[in-house]
Design a protein that fits this description.
Layout: E1 4-13, H1 17-26, H2 31-34, E2 38-45, E3 55-62, E4 65-77, E5 82-88, H3 90-93, E6 96-106, E7 114-124, H4 133-157
Antiparallel strand pairs: 1-7, 2-3, 3-4, 4-5, 5-6, 6-7
């Protein structure tokens, strides 16, 4: 049995995918004010939220349990609107050796709608650990919250 795996899901959005990408790439500290299941975030190490050497600490809820982890940005690909986050420490390291979250903003797919694709690449510490389906559901809910926030902001402006 392999300990490594990958989970992926796309969430359709109504907001401009570029705006969703910009929140993640340039306004990450605001996510805690927008996403219902994120209770707090703080800069743990470094001077800037969006540099690769900065480490943030997140507090969030998955399946009714309050958890914490550290996160750093591994890469930002502006052209493809893709960000790779590395999650580690605290509650992550209890279950996973490797945990990466890849978020991509997709303009108008074949069905004529925009989407955010969330992919989790992971390696479990043992075969007894379940795949991180709760984390994927958490990501989907955060995307929905950001989408709703951006739509409300657009209504206020218009």
């Amino acid at each position: 049995m392999t300990l490594a795996g990958k989970l992926s899901a796309e969430v359709g959005i109504h907001a401009n995918p570029e705006k969703v990408f910009n929140i993640l790439a340039k306004q990450l500290h605001h996510l805690q004010n927008v996403a219902e299941r994120i209770h707090g975030a703080k800069l743990h190490e470094g001077d800037d939220w969006h540099t690769n050497d900065s480490i943030k600490q997140w507090t969030y809820t998955i399946a009714g349990e309050v958890l914490t982890c550290h996160e750093s940005i591994e890469s930002i690909d502006e052209k493809n609107k893709t960000i790779t986050f590395k999650l580690f420490g605290e509650d992550i390291e209890k279950h996973f050796k490797v945990f990466k979250l890849i978020v991509q903003a997709i303009d108008k797919n074949e069905y004529g709608s925009s989407a955010i694709k969330c992919t989790i690449e992971y390696e479990k510490i043992s075969k007894d650990v379940h795949p991180p389906f709760g984390y994927l559901e958490f990501c989907n809910k955060c995307v929905e919250d950001v989408d709703e926030h951006l739509l409300k902001a657009d209504e206020i402006v218009n």
